[in-house]
């Protein structure tokens, strides 16, 4: 009997991917195993495709990519996603696993945005929402991607698009809140594609959080606080995971910071940062730390704030997180100004302003400077900034 070595070679990849998927289901996904899974997916994506022998590998490999994508986003493994996910999307589109294309596209769009490739992220979200595959998906699955698209538009200052997508997502979560049916099967062997990293109520909570942020950026502060309260109540009602609450703690802390309620901001942001450090969510640690440093400046803990900002700035530079790099310099400038070091402050604000030309900030971020600058000084500093 002749051995087909090509099929045996491909079969090994299929077995490895199923083994990793079982490991993730049974034991979770730590950073070491994530690196192993990413390496396997990258090798698969770069293989020369050869006839029907690929059929048995596409399902489990695409399922694996979808399972690990969200974790790669959280821990800062963005380069493998940016280089590999476009190839995986092409594979998903031309095979029977077309709905994997939706998951892969969403992950790629989020990572491109995090890396500062805003135009590319916008193209991907637009393609995703216009896709016939997306339109044919179950409502409780569509709410996932509407939430992510709405979040992207919110942080780009496109408030009407953000509102439309987030409100549609919220409506879908209302209709499907108690659904518990199994996720779609993408492989005849029973390998499942994780379409949603949280249950439907979790997406409702996250959507409420972003609607609260939208209200905050529109300076409807009372509305924002009310929405955040509803969000935290929902998490408590369903015994939510702490990582969901930590996202809302950052939003609430930022709201308090913008309102100059510094002691309250410090307390809630410290709570959120503790959770995010436990779970090693790199992007969450960075953003929560920046606003915590802002609250520390507000209660005259300048040295502690500077230490935290320098630690975060190093992480921002390592992962090329441009928006948060600019915010670090915004608050480091405030710290220098409070010390009476005006030239270093202006140097920090110049770097922050340069960042804002590529990734604009919401004008509410500049409330950080209201207390330390006169109106004339503030106008001069902000003249170089680009904002929503």
Explain the overall architecture.
With 388 residues, the protein is mainly alpha-helical. Helix content is 75%, strand content 0%. The protein has helices at 5-27, 31-45, 55-75, 78-93, 98-114, 118-130, 132-135, 139-155, 159-176, 200-217, 221-237, 242-258, 262-279, 282-298, 302-319, 322-339, 342-358, 375-382. α2 (31-45) packs across α3 (55-75), α5 runs parallel beside α8 (139-155) and α9 packs antiparallel against α10. It is globular, with a radius of gyration of 22 Å. The protein starts with a helix and ends in a 6-residue tail after the last helix. Mean pLDDT is 86; it is low at 1-5 and 185-190.
Write the layout of secondary structure elements.
Elements lengths: L4 H23 L3 H15 L9 H21 L2 H16 L4 H17 L3 H13 L1 H4 L3 H17 L3 H18 L23 H18 L3 H17 L4 H17 L3 H18 L2 H17 L3 H18 L2 H18 L2 H17 L16 H8 L6
In short:
The chain contains 18 helices and no strands.
Give descriptors for this structure.
388 residues, single chain, disordered N terminus, 18 helices, globular, mainly alpha
């Amino acid at each position: 009997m002749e051995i087909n070595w090509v099929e045996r070679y491909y079969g090994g990849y299929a077995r490895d991917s199923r083994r990793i998927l079982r490991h993730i289901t049974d034991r979770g996904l730590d950073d070491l195993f994530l690196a192993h899974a990413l390496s396997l997916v990258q090798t698969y994506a770069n293989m020369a495709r050869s006839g029907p022998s690929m059929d048995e590998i596409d399902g489990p490999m695409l399922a694996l990519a979808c399972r690990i994508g969200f974790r790669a986003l959280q821990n800062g493994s963005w380069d493998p996603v940016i280089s590999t996910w476009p190839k995986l999307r092409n594979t998903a589109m031309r095979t029977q696993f077309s709905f994997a294309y939706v998951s892969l596209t969403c992950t790629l769009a989020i990572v491109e945005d995090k890396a500062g490739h805003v135009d590319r992220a916008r193209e991907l979200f637009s393609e995703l929402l216009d896709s016939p595959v997306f339109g044919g998906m179950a409502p409780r699955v569509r709410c996932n991607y509407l939430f992510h698209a709405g979040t992207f538009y919110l942080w780009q200052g496109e408030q009407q698009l953000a509102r439309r997508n987030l409100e549609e997502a919220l409506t879908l979560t209302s209709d499907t809140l108690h659904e518990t049916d199994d996720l779609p099967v993408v492989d005849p062997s029973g390998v499942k594609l994780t379409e949603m990293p949280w249950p439907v109520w979790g997406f409702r909570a996250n959507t409420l959080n972003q609607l609260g942020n939208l209200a905050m950026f529109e300076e409807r502060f009372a509305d924002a606080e009310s929405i955040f309260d509803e969000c935290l109540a929902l998490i408590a009602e369903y015994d939510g995971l702490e990582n969901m609450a930590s996202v809302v703690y950052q939003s609430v802390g930022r709201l308090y910071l913008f309102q100059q309620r510094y002691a309250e901001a410090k307390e809630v942001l410290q709570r959120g940062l503790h959770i995010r450090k436990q779970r090693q969510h790199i992007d969450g640690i960075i953003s929560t730390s920046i606003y915590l440093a802002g609250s520390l400046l507000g209660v005259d803990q300048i040295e502690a704030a500077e230490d935290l900002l320098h630690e975060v700035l190093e992480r921002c530079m390592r992962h090329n997180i441009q928006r948060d790099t600019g915010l670090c310099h915004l608050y480091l400038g405030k710290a220098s100004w409070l010390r009476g070091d005006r030239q270093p402050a202006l140097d920090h604000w110049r770097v922050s302003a340069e960042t804002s030309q590529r990734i604009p900030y919401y004008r509410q971020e500049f409330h950080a400077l209201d207390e330390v600058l006169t109106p004339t000084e503030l106008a001069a500093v902000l003249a170089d900034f680009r904002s929503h």
